[in-house]
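Entry for the shared binder. Reason: the reviewer on the internal report wants the predicted structure included alongside the sequence.
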Amino acid sequence: MTPFFSFISSLCLTLGGGILTVTRKSAVHSAIPLIVSLLGVAGLFLLQKAEFLFVAQIVLYIGGIMVLFLFVIMLVNLDEAARVRQFNQQWWLALACVLAVAAEIAYFLRKPLHLAAAPPPAPGGPGNVEPGGGPAFLAITCCPSRSLRCCCWQPWWARW
């Protein structure tokens, strides 16, 4: 199988499963496409040569979490929960929150940005970073006599 065909099939599994997951009315019927979507994501991991993530996706998410998710769905009485009235008379509070967030977004979008100008570059060159990372590889090494006066800075490769 070519990598392009594998990518397209994994992509279709992921997107198709995701779309079917959010459009199903029953939670059990939406759990099965979610498993298909997670299988597509596992296929994408395998295409990127991430075998550990591929196995972890299958074992942890599909094997463990989805079984737990289905168990909870079967355990909870969803028919009784569907009959309970889900909306109350606090729609005005939700509308006020939406209007407040919209006003904040509009305020910050209309407010001009006052960014400080970037400082001019240093006249001495690129700065305090040496090419090759010389000081990053220095270590304290001691002479064979192990006296503190003999300790000096040397590169890590000069210690052996």
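Summary line for the report: Confidence is low (pLDDT under 50) at residues 135-141.
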